[in-house]
């Protein structure tokens, strides 16, 4: 008779927990009403992240064809290069100095808003969700990583860090490393790279101007960590590549064997002739795609 009695008590406890949870969530909704910061829907679940599950579920990874090197969206006009890999027109003309750049999704809609919640709204729990996305992006590089990899977040200048009180790239990287804790080949070294000077916005600058703007902005603070190792540079957004290229340049000069780039999001071309331009964030990873590289760019005011 003891068996059925214990089972009944267990079922009763489960029911009580369900009811207790439902009551707690109802009280939370009444006492602390809050809307989803992305779609505005009333939140009914207790959470430190003010974003509804529907919006989170809508942030899907990029499933379309992208350039094998820089991660740019590919269109039908691009064919396989002689090596058998899909490459965008820019990478066909000049390969980037980093080995490969990958991103979880496109920098638009809900994903963009979630990044802004962390970056400008100070909603730090968003870093955990973004960290899971970054971990997924990093997993696509696994077959190409040949040994221990030093993970380096893109640093903020000290003035920007004082203003923001955190480096979003580092928060996201730490969340990603917790998810990948069983992968001992990846080692986070947040202080390996520093930003020596604050740079002006890259918006509206030509390729040469962007490179000049960032020249000397970064330095390797821990060369003993970098030398002889592969390095993975991580950030929240890859927008146009000058920052990725400059970080790669100084890391290679410090003795890194190869440099990879992984971000949560990437701005992507919206067509063969048009670009989707990100906001004026000077601390985002930028890329090497120029308005003059794209026909009709001037016609649409880019």
Outline the secondary-structure elements.
Blueprint: H1 2-31, H2 53-57, H3 89-93, E1 100-106, H4 109-119, H5 126-139, E2 149-153, H6 158-164, H7 168-179, E3 186-188, E4 193-195, H8 207-214, E5 218-220, H9 223-226, E6 230-241, H10 242-253, E7 258-266, E8 285-287
Helix pairs in contact: 5-7
Helical percentage: 25-40%
Low-confidence stretches: 22-32, 274-283, 286-302
Write the CATH fold name: Rossmann fold
**Oligomer status:** single chain
Mean pLDDT level: 80
- What is the radius of gyration? 22 Å
The global form is: globular
Order of helices and strands: HHHEHHEHHEEHEHEHEE
Number of strands: 8
Strand content: 5-15%
N- to C-terminal distance: 78 Å
What's the story with the biggest beta sheet? 6 strands, parallel
Number of helices: 10
**Name of the top-level CATH class:** Alpha Beta
How many domain units?
1
Description:
- Mean pLDDT is 80; it is low at 22-32, 274-283 and 286-302.
- This protein has helices spanning 2-31, 53-57, 89-93, 109-119, 126-139, 158-164, 168-179, 207-214, 223-226, 242-253; strands at residues 100-106, 149-153, 186-188, 193-195, 218-220, 230-241, 258-266, 285-287.
- It has a single domain (62-300), classed as Rossmann fold.
- Helix 5 crosses helix 7 (168-179).
- Strands 1, 2, 3, 6, 7 and 8 form a six-stranded parallel β-sheet that branches. Strands 4-5 form a two-stranded antiparallel sheet.
- The protein is globular.
- With 302 residues, it is an alpha/beta fold.
């Amino acid at each position: 008779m003891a068996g059925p009695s214990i089972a009944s008590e267990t079922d009763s406890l489960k029911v009580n927990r369900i009811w207790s949870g439902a009551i707690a969530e109802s009280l939370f909704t009444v006492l602390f009403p809050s809307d989803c910061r992305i779609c505005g829907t009333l939140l009914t679940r207790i959470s430190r992240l003010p974003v509804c599950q529907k919006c989170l579920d809508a942030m899907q990874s990029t499933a379309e064809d992208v350039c094998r090197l820089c991660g740019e969206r590919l269109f039908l006009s691009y064919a396989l290069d002689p090596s058998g890999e899909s490459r965008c027109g820019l990478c066909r003309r000049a390969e980037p100095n980093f080995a490969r750049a990958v991103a979880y999704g496109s920098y638009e809609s809900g994903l963009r808003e979630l990044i802004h919640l962390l970056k400008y709204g100070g909603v730090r729990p968003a870093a955990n969700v973004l960290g899971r996305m970054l971990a997924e992006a990093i997993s696509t590089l696994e077959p190409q990583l040949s040994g221990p990899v030093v993970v380096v977040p893109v640093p903020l200048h000290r003035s920007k860090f004082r203003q923001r009180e955190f480096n979003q790239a580092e928060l996201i990287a730490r969340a990603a490393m917790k998810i990948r804790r069983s992968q001992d080949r990846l080692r986070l070294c947040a202080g390996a790279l520093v930003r020596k000077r604050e740079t002006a916005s890259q918006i509206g600058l030509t390729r040469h101007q962007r490179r000049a703007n960032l020249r000397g902005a970064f330095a390797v603070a821990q060369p003993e960590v970098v030398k002889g190792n592969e390095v993975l540079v991580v950030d929240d957004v890859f927008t146009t590549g000058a920052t990725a290229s400059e970080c790669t340049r100084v890391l290679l000069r410090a003795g890194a064997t190869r440099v990879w780039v992984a971000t949560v999001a990437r701005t992507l071309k919206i067509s063969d002739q048009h670009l989707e331009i990100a906001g004026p964030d000077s601390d985002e990873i930028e890329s090497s795609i120029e308005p003059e590289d794209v026909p009709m760019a001037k016609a649409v005011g880019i």
